[in-house]
Amino acid sequence: MLGLALLGGPFVTLPMPVTPGDPTLMAIASDPAQMRLYCFSTRCGDEEWQVAMAAPMPAESNGDARHRTLRLPGSQSYTSLSAPATPRDSKASYSNDFRIGARYGMQVMRDGPTQVGLTLGAGYRLAPLYDDGINQAGPVLRGELNLGQKVGERATWTQRVQFESGRGEAFVKQSMSFDVNLAPNWTLESDFAIRHDTQSGGGKETAESSIELRRRF
Question: What are the distances in angstroms from CA 63 to CA 58, 59, 69, 72, 113?
Fold first, then answer.
């Protein structure tokens, strides 16, 4: 009997003695698993970082290691975004001391060395001969054609044709200009204009020209 008692002693679990105290401490003491410390892992949970850091590094010489660029996840380049293209056509209404009306413009060619623009509109002339137009007040039809051409890296040639008709009269103005960039702040500008109108059933022409050397500050 004594031998059985000695053999069975280590396998017998005796209840813990009841000790008066804080109920919380008593609950923790009754369950030893709650006394374990929490495990804080330093491993990053981002999968792309884990794959990048776990990839084996190829053998390289000291010279290659100095010139090698460290590529981290998320550092890859993307295609740059560009602003949306501006429309080729435009609409506008206007009013001033000598004419009111509306016009519609279209840029037929705008990209490249050659540029072509066309504008058409209708209005009512209030004051005659105040600007380029007919010599009578009344409803008018107006239009404009713009041509531009780059000549080399420094020169630009521009031609502009304006017309206005109404009350049985017509007016046409043709102007040409040739500008040359001599230096970063110096430009040589030459202009030539011809005006033709059919005033009072007849017609007359005037011309003017100018050459200017401009400096921009």
Answer: 14, 12, 12, 21, 48
155-160, Cβ contacts within 8 angstroms, sequence gap of 24 or more: 155/179, 155/180, 155/181
Q: Write out the H or E segment, with its range, that includes residue 30.
A: helix 23-30
Q: How far apart are CA 140 and CA 201, in angstroms?
A: 17
3-state SS, residue 58: coil
Would you state the pLDDT for residue 197?
Answer: 86
Q: Hey, how many other C-beta atoms are within 10 angstroms of the C-beta on 9?
A: 8
Distance, in Å, from the CA atom of 153 to the CA atom of 113, rounded to the nearest integer, reads 10
Tokens representing residue 194 in the block: 């011809």
Exposure class string for 130-164: b at 16+ Cβ within 10 A, else e:
eebbbeeeeebebebbbbbeeeeeeebeeebebbb
Lowest mean pLDDT among 43-47, 63-67, 107-111, 179-183: 43-47
CA distance 69 to 43: 25
Residue type (1 letter), 170: A
pTM: 0.56
**Residue entry with tokens 């053999």:** 7
What would the pLDDT profile of 144-177 be if each residue is shown by its tens digit?
999 999 998 899 999 999 999 998 889 999 999 9
Residue tagged 């004594």 (tokens): 2
Question: Tokens standing for 148?
Answer: 């531009």
